[in-house]
Design a protein that fits this description.
The protein is built from 15 helices and no strands. The protein is mostly helical. The radius of gyration is 19 Å and the shape is globular. The relative contact order is 0.13. It binds zinc ion. Zinc ion binds next to loops. Its cofactor is Zn(2+). It comes from Ziziphus jujuba. Its EC number is 2.5.1.60.
Length: 325
């Protein structure tokens, strides 16, 4: 970190303790709030641990058997045991199993049939059987099927043309055709286009300009014009800029400093803005953002799959690369 001078450091050990403590405090307020999306919480927390090199601190068998209990006959996963299935939790379940190299516990045919069944005629995706449509679900479905090597189960061409139909004049993307550009939505659309090899549909300079304009004076990034900066946009904006090869357009040092300023140095965890309360979600996005910024001591994260690069390589290149690295 010498190049960034004296700007404080990542309290890695504290963040590991924080993540592990959240998992143990099952009756805490945060845990009750998180109850229905514990699967997402597991993904955020465990990916953070992996990026910090501490995934071995958890009980793999216990987590894997809990994940299996969250699966429904349809093949989809709920956010917790007994909760309705949704593509959001299904991707998180697949990502957590990928972290542990346990994808082989899945009936891949069944899971991929569930996800592929959510595609609509026009190429869009619904999030669950209730039918809400959003480009977020396009990304989630495409990412999930790609990790399972089952992209052939959907109409990729229609999926891409639906996403392209959500592109705006400012170069960004919305949740549906005509929807306002938003950094979270842009990540989803750029990520889906990256995974399907369709980034040529993006005007990289125009979108890169919109994205780098998200950096405010404090160094943090916001999600839309006139909004406050928030650590989670370190992920949505940065990953998009990396995928379109325009990350050099923002001030990296200032962003690193902003994320480090959002740490709770006493109890661990990262918040959305300096001095706010920490949570697992922002802790993950802060650490993932620092990983994208190549912060020393963190594993590299893949900007499209939102998983550590070594995990993605294991899935797409095979075990050989793991032994060699
Ligand atoms: Zn946020």
């Amino acid at each position: 970190m010498e190049i960034f001078g004296d700007m404080g450091e990542l309290a890695a050990e504290k963040h590991v303790e924080y993540i592990l403590s959240v998992e143990k405090k099952k009756d805490s307020f945060e845990s009750v709030v998180m109850e229905h999306l514990r699967m997402n919480g597991a993904y955020w927390g465990l990916t953070t641990l992996d990026l910090l090199g501490k995934l071995h601190a958890v009980d793999v068998d216990q987590i894997v058997s809990w994940i299996i209990k969250c699966q429904h006959d349809s093949g989809g996963f709920g956010g917790n045991i007994g909760h309705d299935p949704h593509v959001l939790y299904t991707l998180s379940a697949v990502q957590v199993l990928a972290l542990f190299d346990k994808l082989d516990v899945l009936d891949i045919e069944k899971v991929s049939t569930y996800v592929a069944g959510l595609q609509n005629e026009d190429g869009s995706f619904s999030g669950d059987m209730w039918g809400e449509i959003d480009t977020r679900f396009s990304y989630i479905a495409i990412c999930c099927l790609s990790l399972l090597h089952r992209l052939d189960k959907i109409n990729v061409e229609n999926a891409v043309s639906y996403i392209v139909s959500c592109k705006n004049l400012d170069g960004g993307f919305g949740c549906m055709p005509g929807g306002e550009s938003h950094a979270g939505q842009i990540f989803c659309c750029v990520g889906a286009l990256a995974i399907t090899g369709a980034l040529h549909h993006i005007d990289k300079d125009l979108l890169g300009w919109w994205l780098c304009e998200r950096q405010v004076k404090s160094g943090g990034l916001n999600g839309r014009p006139e909004k406050l900066p928030d650590v989670c946009y370190s992920w949505w904006v940065l990953s998009s800029l990396i995928m379109i090869d325009r990350v050099h357009w923002i001030n990296k040092e200032k962003l690193v400093k902003y994320i480090l300023d959002c740490q709770d140095l006493d109890n661990g965890g990262i918040s959305d803005r300096p001095d706010d309360a920490v949570d697992v979600y922002h802790t993950y996005f802060g650490v993932a953002g620092l990983s994208l910024l190549e912060y020393t001591g963190l594993k590299a994260i893949d900007p499209a799959y939102a998983l550590p690069v070594d995990v993605v390589n294991r899935i797409f290149i095979g075990r050989q690369s793991k032994k060699e690295s």
